[in-house]
UniProtKB/TrEMBL annotation, chains A, B:
UniProt source species: Maribacter chungangensis
InterPro entries (alphabetical): Fumarylacetoacetase, Fumarylacetoacetase-like_C, Fumarylacetoacetase_C_sf, Fumarylacetoacetase_N, Fumarylacetoacetase_N_sf
Domain (Fumarylacetoacetase-like C-terminal): residue spans on this chain: 121-402
Keyword Ribonucleoprotein on entry: no
Pfam families: FAA_hydrolase (PF01557), FAA_hydrolase_N (PF09298)
GO molecular function, one term: fumarylacetoacetase activity
Keywords: Calcium, Hydrolase, Magnesium, Metal-binding, Phenylalanine catabolism, Tyrosine catabolism
Name of the molecule in the record: fumarylacetoacetase
Transmembrane segments: none
Annotated pathway: Amino-acid degradation; L-phenylalanine degradation; acetoacetate and fumarate from L-phenylalanine: step 6/6
Enzyme Commission number(s): 3.7.1.2
Cofactor names: Ca(2+); Mg(2+)
Amino acid sequence: MKKLTSWLDIPADSDFSIYNLPFGIFSKKKGKTRAGIAIGNHIVDLAALAEAELIDVSPFVFRQSTLNEFIGLGKEVTNKVRLDVQGLLIDADSPLKKKPEILVPQADVQMHLPVHIGDYTDFYSSIEHATNVGKMFRDPENALLPNWRHIPVGYHGRASSIVVSGTPIKRPKGQLMPKDATAPVFKPSGRLDFELEMGFITGKNTQLGTSIGTKEAEDYIFGLVLFNDWSARDIQKWEYVPLGPFLGKNFGSSISPWIVTIEALEPFKVAGPKQDPEVLPYLKYEGNQNYDVQLEVALQPENGEEQTVSSSNFKYMYWNMAQQLAHHTINGCNIHIGDVMASGTISGKDESSYGSMLEISWGGSKPITLKDGSTRTFIEDNDTVIMRGFAEKDGIKVGFGEVRGTILPAD
Amino acid sequence: MKKLTSWLDIPADSDFSIYNLPFGIFSKKKGKTRAGIAIGNHIVDLAALAEAELIDVSPFVFRQSTLNEFIGLGKEVTNKVRLDVQGLLIDADSPLKKKPEILVPQADVQMHLPVHIGDYTDFYSSIEHATNVGKMFRDPENALLPNWRHIPVGYHGRASSIVVSGTPIKRPKGQLMPKDATAPVFKPSGRLDFELEMGFITGKNTQLGTSIGTKEAEDYIFGLVLFNDWSARDIQKWEYVPLGPFLGKNFGSSISPWIVTIEALEPFKVAGPKQDPEVLPYLKYEGNQNYDVQLEVALQPENGEEQTVSSSNFKYMYWNMAQQLAHHTINGCNIHIGDVMASGTISGKDESSYGSMLEISWGGSKPITLKDGSTRTFIEDNDTVIMRGFAEKDGIKVGFGEVRGTILPAD
């Protein structure tokens, strides 16, 4: 990959390198929302850039509360904007140099949900996670269900409760069935958990009754975010048979604010795990479809120091995004720009790479100790969970920033 | 209830009586979408009515592709519009009489989805349906799962594939596991089914972290529609463990175009079934919360006569809408104007009141015979399914019209 250098001061370890240039929605103090591209510690204000006629898109498209309209212009336009901005940041004689007001310090802004999310789907595509859950909740000898290696299992989640990084989440209350009890009780969840996931955001509408093949899937993926699928294990356990998770999940999911484009991640493609048995023809794919994205979860108690509790990687996924999208639409289900499709918890083989407290504490049986000496099996009130992720190769870094959320006590 | 008489010619058996006045979105030939109220065989064009200053709302609100903005004005406004229109249709000296262009024949319009649907939730609230399914798929002796009488079980569905009555649905293809097979096969669903449901449409936004009590639930319900939750039983059976229905459901759901307000249904409230064991405090409710709405499903083969295959009633529901909404939000899950919450299949005790072919044909073992002599266990290509519903009491009728859909062959 060709080395690129910007005239702008970009910290060497920044997630938002000249190779990344992710899209997001921000607002300055008391200002309106607008679209931007992250670069180092700054944001390129795309509305201002368009007003200055440095890119060939109507400023109107960037003066919105979401990126949906911009994404709807199609990859030809969105990729050109990204490459034009890259050019403006590289060019030593860039007209952008004379317009410092277009570069906004990230420290001065508030970030917002980047898209209006029409539908949200959550997959269950890590074989290590599905196996761990199967061992704990079902049969250790037959941990994976019979359909798991044939289907990228997924289910519909709640779009309304997806929030941007930094939004606090209140501990949910609900029905639980305590061990050995004969009737359910009502109380705040005692087994509140995170799930380390990534989500992709769709970039094109389809018509009901049509399908997307694995070969064309990338055309329908705008980009990716970090995704924390907060889960209340005790509520989930009592409610989920037979129709799946509901209140155990829909009290909140958090996403990182910057959408890293699938094009920026192209250099980090790697082969996925071998799929055995062979999948049905509509799920076959060509080339490398996994992505080497290093992921980390940190837990920070109130007024305490954060501590890494998981180091995982997006490349572990058994089912890749092309297969997920092909499966999701094989029955004719339509998609809209701004749908979110999350991966499911991303766990690796090693205990240190497990993507949820459920697995890390093995169902609550193995507490972990934090730097302040306190222990955790699940998330306590006022704990903050921070997920980070980046791809890196040959000195080139493309990162996601972080998704962060603090759990507030139940009312 | 006071008898009301309109100067307009309304067929005596019309679903859209002077007591009903449901809201919908229509367009005339080559015209733009606008909001209307159904009355007899006509539609009151609300944009035209507002332009003529016969109601006190900006015409802009009615010149939209959905009712969301109108509903967002709040019940004080939406109920007033409905009652003002009722007054204009009763008053012998009504200024509406001199403006016939405001009354559009229903035969001249196309109907559209009435709302932009943010999230769609499907409940599972008929004890007869849940018991029938449990008997067929699990244990006939313990058909109801342990959580069923404690929780209004629900799950998230796909909003993007909800279509308005009249939209054809293509038979979905997908993975199935044939009986005694060792590997799944890929083919069109052979067990395509309808589900007779009703759905309510929410009328108010809430904030994440807040809940709606059963007492205030009605304030959050704008109105109801008929809902056909098309289901591919063979796809569903193979995929649904452990995370619930996905491709077996999300290839399409059909709704009736007219939203009958909860206020119009008030006279038809009745007591629901006794709930035993007693429910947790947050699910307790006061007064009658079920609705006596007669429901019917007809099946019409291509070029054939339609035949009633089910006669059910919304009053059979074990869990009512107030309980569903209270449960859905007890964990802080937020709702938006235009969310759809469907009841789940509405079956009664009697075989003639079963709300799906799965139950009517008892898992495919008891075919029914149609008027043309053909038999059905599930829905065949080019069959049309029509659902109708109305409430009637003391000679007063409030109906839903119909939701209709034809199954097209798979590609």
